[in-house]
Structures are given as C-alpha cells and as structure tokens.
Amino acid sequence: MSSANHEVRAGFELRVAALLADIAAANAGRRAAIVSAGGGAVVDWLLETVAVAKLDGCGTQAEAARALAYLIADPDVRKDVLGRPRAVPNLLRFIYLSQPQNKSKRHSRRSSLDISDSSKGRSMLVAAIMDIVTSNCDSVEKVSFKPSLPGNAEMRDIAAAIHVIEEGGMHLDEGERNDDDDDGGRGMKGIGIKILEGTTVLGLSRTSELMMFDHSDDTNVESDRGTPKTLALLNKHDSSVGQANLSAAVVPGLWDDLHRQHVAVPFAAWALANWAMASEINRSHIEELDQDGEAVMTALLAPERSVKWHGSLVARLLLEDRNLPLNDSVSDWASSLLSTASHASKNEDISLSRMALSAFLVAVERSLEARRTVMEKGLELMRVTAKRTVKHQQVQEALAKALEFLSTEDLHLSLEESQKWSGILLSWVFGKPSSNAIRSSAIRILSCILEDQGPSSLLISQGWLALLLNDILSSCKTSSVKGGTQPKSETAKTQINQSNILSAAQTGNQLAVAVVNLAGNQLGTTKDSVDTFPLADLLSLEPLAGPFKNLKKDNPPKFDVADSALATLKAIKALTEICAEDSLLQDKITELGVLCLLRRYLLRDDYEKLAAIEAYAASRAPESQERVSSNAGESSPSSTNNPSSVRVPPTAHIRRHAARLLTILSLLPKVQKVIAADETWCKWLEDCANGKISGINDLKIRSYARATLLNVFCNQQIGIDLVNNGPVTSGRDGTSIGPHYGDMIFLINPELPHWKCPGKDQSTVWKDKSLSSEFDSMNSDNELVTKVSDVGDASSSFNVSNNDSESEIPQMDIVFVHGLRGGPYKTWRIAEDTSSTKSGLVEKIDEEAGKLGTFWPGEWLSADFPQARLFSLKYKTNLTLWSGASLPLQEVGSMLLEKLVAAGIGNRPVVFVTHSMGGLVVKQILYKAKAENMDNLVNNTVGVVFYSCPHFGSKLADLPCRMGFVLRPAPNIGELRSGSQRLEQLNDFLRHLHKKQMLEVLSFCETKMTPIVTGYGGVAFRTEIVARESAYPGFGEIVLQSTDHINSCKPLSRSDPSYTEALEFLRKLKAQYSRREV
Length: 1078
Hints:
There is one protein chain. The protein is mainly α. Among the domains are: 666-809, no CATH class; 810-1077, Rossmann fold, CATH 3.40.50. The protein is 53% helix and 5% strand. α7 crosses α11 (261-278) and α16 (350-366) packs across α17 (368-377). The longest helix is centred in the middle third of the chain and has 32 residues, at 492-523. About 20% of the residues have low confidence.
C-alpha cells in the first residue's frame, strides 16, 4: 500500500471501514468477532480513524464511526471497545471533530471512491455515545450497574477526561489536523498535558456560565431530548427485521444540534464515573490527578443534567472510599450537591436530587468542615427541599440522615433552627409514609434538641407529646371501627377502655391548647411565616392547627408554666392508662419516640427551671414598670407580673407518671436494649431506687426505678431466676424468661440488696451484643437507642457479688393488698389523725387518712422481719361509677394473678396481708390460680392476714346498691353485698385450703363505727362497714381491735396488737417453713 497513490489508499480504507460497519450491523456474533480480531487491533484502528480528520478522508471517518456506533451500542461488547487504551480520548477527539462549534458548513474535497454520507456515520456514533451517557441517569438504583470501563485505566486516559470536564472542550488549529504529532511522538494530539511520551496540547473552554451555590435555575441541556434505547433493540435475534431495528437504534441526527462541549463534557463525566466505579485503583488515580477537587466541582456546577448526575456519583464514590484522603474542596462539594438537590427537587427531578443527596450525605458524614458550611448556609435549603419532597421517601430519608449528622456530632442546631425544624421533624416521626430510618433519624435529632436547648425546648417536647397522644387515639378509633359495633352487654373492661379513650381525647385537646398558649406567651402572636414565627410549621400540625388558628394576635392568653406542666401531667397519665394493657400500643408509642420524652421528664427539671425563669422575669417586671410609670407620671400594676402569682409546676407528679409508663414499657425487649445501652439513664435509675437523688423521695418513683432496672438486667435468658431463687418461667417458644415487674406491683424498700439481681454480673448482660462499644442509634428492631461509650460502667454501680448476695436471698414474699378506695402505700400509712372524722362524702373515707405518717411495712416490718421481700399491689377500685369505671372482682383477680405470676411471686413461700376488699381479691386470685392449674402460687401461699375483710359482704356495699339511682354502684361493689353467693364460694375454697393445712389465716375485726358522711354542724353519719360476723371467715385466728374500718390496718406503734400479732404470725409461718425444709 505504501506505493499506492493517496486516492487509492483512501478509497481502500473507506471500503474496509464500510465493510466493518456492515458486518457490525449484521448480528451480535459478528460484532464479537470484530472486537476480538487481532487482539483488538481492528477496534484500535477504528478508534484512531474516527479521531483523525482528513480533508479527503471524511468518508472513512464516517464509516468507522458507523461501525463503532454499532459496537458501542451492543452491551455485550461495549466494555471491550471502550476498554481499549486511549479509547475515551479518541472518542473525545472525535466528538470535537464531528461536532463543530458553529454550524457553518465546511466544504471538503471528496474522493471519487467516497461512497459514504459522512454526516450520517458521525451522527450515529454521537447518538450511540449520548445514549450510553444518558441511559443510566434516571434512577439511583441503576447505579449498581456494571461499569463499562476497565478497572485498570491508564492515567493519561483519565487525565484527558478530567481536563475536558474542567475546561469544556478541545481546540485545535486547522493546520494541526494531520496524521502526525507535532513532535513526532506517539502522544495524543491536542491533549494539553505531558502524558508518558511526547508533548501534546489540549485547548479547553466553556461557553456557558457555571452555576454558583445560590443560583435558583438550572439549564438542563439534555432534559428535553429523547434517548435512543439501543439496549432493547440489540437484544433482537439475527434477522432482517432485527438488523433493521439495530440500524434504527443509532438513528443519526438526534444530537447534531448540540455544540461539541455539550457532548464531550457529558461523555467525559460518564467515563470518569465509570472508572471510579470500576476499581479502587482508578479512584486513587482520579484523586491524584484531581487533588484540588476542581474537576469534580466543575462537573457538579455544569449546566448539563447528566454531568451533574455523574459528577455527583464520582463525588460519592471518592468520598465513600475510606482509603483516599479528603481534599480541601469537600465543603464546596457539599454546598454544590445540596444546591443541585434543591434545584432538582424544584424541577421535580427526583432521581438527580437523590443522587446529589447520596453524595451530600457522605460529605457531611466524613467532613467536619462540610458540616460547618452547611450549618452556616445550607439549613434553609435543606428545609425547603424537605417541604418540596414530602411524597418522596428516599429524598426525605437522605435529608433526615444528613440533618442527623449535622446535629448529633460536633455541631448543634440553634434554638431558632430547632424550632423551625420541629414541624418537619415531627411530621417525619408521625407521617404515614415515613420509613423506620426517617423516623429514627428524626427521633435522634429531636432528642439532641431537647438535650441541647433544655427548658427552651419545652414547646417542642410538649408538641411531640400532643401529637403522640393524638396518634394513639386515632389508632384506637381505627381499631374500634375495624372491630365493628360492640354488643349491648359490654364488659366492664370495655367500659373502662372507652372511658380512658374519652378522657384522653379531652386531655389531648387541653394539651394542644396549652402548647399554642405557651407558644403565644413566649414568642408572641405574629404567625405569618416561619421566618417571623419559627414554630409556625409545628403549630400547623394536627391537633395543634385548630387552637393555633384561634390564637388571638392582639390579646395573648394568660398562661404560665404551671398550666403547661399540668396539661403535660394529664397527657402522660392518659397515655399510660390507654397503653397499660395493650402491647401493640406500647410498641407503637415506643416507635414514635416516647422514650426520649420519658427520659427528659425523669432526668431533667425543665418545668421547674422555666418556672424559675418566669418568676425572675416577674420579679424584674415591677422595676421596669416603675421606670415607665415615672416617665409617664402614672402607675399601671399588673397582677400577671406579681412574683407571688407564679405557681410551682407539678414536676414530681410528672416524674411519677413518667416512671410508671417507663416501667410498663421496660417489659418490651427492645426497650430493655435502649435502657441498658444508656449509661446516664441506668445510673439515674439506680440512684433514684436507692433514694440518693435530692428532691425525689416518692416511694412509687423509687419502686418504678428499681422495677425498671430489674426488668432490664434480670430478665435475660439465663435459665434460672436468681432474684426469685428458682427456675424462671418459660415463654411460648420454650425460651427461659425472667421476672416481669409491671406497674401494678410495687417493691417496698427498693434499695435493699435482694433487689439487685444477686449472682449476676450486669456488666456482661449485653457483652454478646457488643454494647461495650458505641451503639448504633437503631437496634435490630429499628428502635431508638442512646449512644454510650461503655455499658459496663453503667451497671457496675449496682452490681452485687455472689458471695454477698447468697446470704441475703429472701426466704419469703409478703404481698400487701389494699381495699376499696385504698392504695399501695396510703392504705398502710399511719395517719396523724386516726379519728377519721375529717371525711366528707363516702368516696373520701380513705382520702385524708394515710397521706402522712409512717409507712409501717417499709419502716417497721422490713427491719423486724428482714427475711422477706415486701410487695404492695395496686388495682383500681371505686365505690360508685361517678368516680370512674372499675373492674369487677373476677377480672381484678385475673389481672393481678397474671401480674403476680409474671413477677415470679409464688416461686417461694408467700403471705398475703390484706385490708377490706383486698382480702376478697386475694381469695379470687387463689381461686383463679387453682382453676388455671397454677399450682405453684396456690401451694406456696402459706398464710393470709385479713384486716376487716368482708368475707360475707359489707353494709357499705348495701348502701349504694339501695340508692342505685343516686350513687350508681360500681361493678365490684355489687359483689360485696351481704349474702353474695360468690363470696360464699370463695370462702369455702379458702376453708378447704386451711383444712388441708396448706395455709394459715389471721383475721382482724373492727369494733368501732366508721364516719362516712359529715352533716351540718360537723355531725358525722357513722356505720359499721364490716360486721364482726363478716370479718371472721369461720376458721383461723381472730383478733378484735378497738378501731374503725379505716384504721384497722394502721397500727399506732410497734406495740399495737394489729402489728405485733401480724409479726408473730409471720414468724410462726417462717418457723414452720424452716422445719418443713429440714
């Protein structure tokens, strides 16, 4: 060929190129043969041919371009073609040569052998290139596709793509377009860097403006253009129709109107993304060649959509590679990525928004500087994006995770930003489309806000509680609708549930009003926008929206912290009542973040601190008013600013009911993991149970704290219940479970050593779950946990050694059961005034008595009889329906039986100490246990002490039943009437147990009248509530007391017969049990 004339040579090359194009168009097998021919030499020749512009060789270039178009369009051989050395630079050069910067036609001399339409082949190759560039920019899920470029790319190829991205295109003089390099080397002509051999030149420029951080509009060059789908067409079988379809797959002309930089830059960005995806080596080359991050930044700011998309992918891949160092441009990347995501969401381009956010997420995770930059400039952009993409879960999830990184690491949201975000965060928590990941991130962020802002965040926590209660009520209504209409003969339990729901609905409305009123008082009543009223988004959520609309702008309501705290107290109480016996609702409120609220209510005194701030402001108000009045010449005192008018919020009651709800929830395994992982919380619970926290002396709170710790740390699957000194109960799946202490069982003297999981090293409870390292904020059940550094330290403070605990294992359980209108503590307190003459209406007979004074089971009995664990039960009882619904005797017995068995009571000897109706409840418990074959509890019940128990009915029960239209007796009162067959049946059952010497009985009888109604002039109406013949069951020992019904269980001193006889009875039972053991 060297001796042939130039025209013949050009013609031969043209026909060879045309033949290769026709073969490539035939079928997949022939395309594979072309690619493998000569070890890739044929493909190299085609690539070199399209990269060279000859004045008389346009046809050859066009036919080579046509052949490459078919090869690149075939996914089976594409990677082999594009993976050839210098393939990408040659194609970039071809794009420059085939896509002139202006549309003026260039007339070239055509060979007589030229049989090709030069523009068609070039257009086909450009179409094939743009097809692969744009085909994977529609969905983030497709990012997992196999890269089309090799993992061992040459650095000069990567460098060529980087320079095209940075500068926008290639510029060569007309005189430089020949076959030989300027310096005789083999380097690629037109590349403006020193690459391996030879000096080459690459001229680059962009004609469009770069998008800066705050630009609001994008110019998506490719957004309105159709993309040929070559993949589907190339999958056709070899046939004439298939061949025709393949030819149509690379239809020329679709991208001809694009300037060369709008084709070259997208292709270069696509190549860079594929190289980065292909291997770690390629990513290290990209990082080395783009150390300043300018190429990635240029791609992120590019006007073309595909360049932004691939630039975001490159940024993400480089940031995800932990082996690569972070460059100084990451913060700029983060700003640009957030801007891209925001603009894309504005144009409803969700796939681009998701891709940009995926890279943005990694940037803020890895770079502190990026987090600072976004904190300063990007929060508003994130907030706007979140509001635009409410229906797009993936975008919301990325934003939630990014905000979590921003607020839970080194930086913290300001109070104003916290208030602005609160509405979005709570909508993420309670939104129906929210995923577990979104919800958990939002809960973590809200938890950090509450911790960082302290009392200033009360509005947010209160709004959270209001939405939580509203969501639970909605769930209750939904379940009741699905359940259909209730039968006419509704059970008492159903009535109680309905009563609780109705009360909770009223409480929820009050809490919503309280949130809005407190917001109005603190922030004013300007509510035009989030900028002027940061809580506008929060207060626009239900159930806050209604009261917010009614908030008067000119007349803020008179509302203080005490009112707000009271509303919170009622809400926690109502929420607890609804969820107490419903495990599904307990799971739901846990998922909705109630643990964060409970932790805050227990560990912090936000309401007290806010009240102190309020009091200080009130004390300062007169001074400012005096100044104003002295200037105006008149005084205008305000009662609202009087320091004496500032009330103390009921913080102790809030803490008590929060502790109760926590105890209920601590029976859930996922909640146990949360608490066990929180060092601070565990330490607080231990100190609280031991009475070491100043200002917290409430016996119920202390009991709840200990019960929670026992549920968490002594309830592992260990095969033996060391607290109860016996085998644990078994779950349905056969696994061993430890004792469960619910809210109806109170632990007396929770600071004693026998309540501390003897023989169990709690620091190793979660060792197998790697809790000694930092917890991930979500466990396997997607529930919130608090990050800690070492759980072992948390439990070490309440760990008891084996040697010390063995001698302190209690030998007996003593369970106190109160009576009608009593309580787990107040029934057993020694009243300062034992005359019981202060009582008013019959419902108040035990309201005054027992509020103050000595709690004798905890202060006397625990010291005189240390061999026993002491419990006290709680159940709801009312004399009439006016004071609330209560369960009948049988249902109360069944419920308490379940609680007792779950707590392991019955695994050792048990003695019940009862007052009034409590004795009947114990009878019902034992009767039910026998019927349910729970022989452990029945056989181990060795004694019962009855204080004024109406074994055969009570005159007090006869009174409301005779006046039913007025007093409306409760269901449990109806069963206490004289002559009740049910009472006879229970007494016969107990008599049978006593006859078999299974248990001993001690009964105390009242001998004085009890005042129940106070008339005019202080004259009290008195009656004998339990007659002597009813107080004695007909077997066992009996003691006659010179006292009334209320004080029969309240000994005046340790020498009082009501105490000494009971103590002697217990000692006798212990001695009998010890002899039996021997």
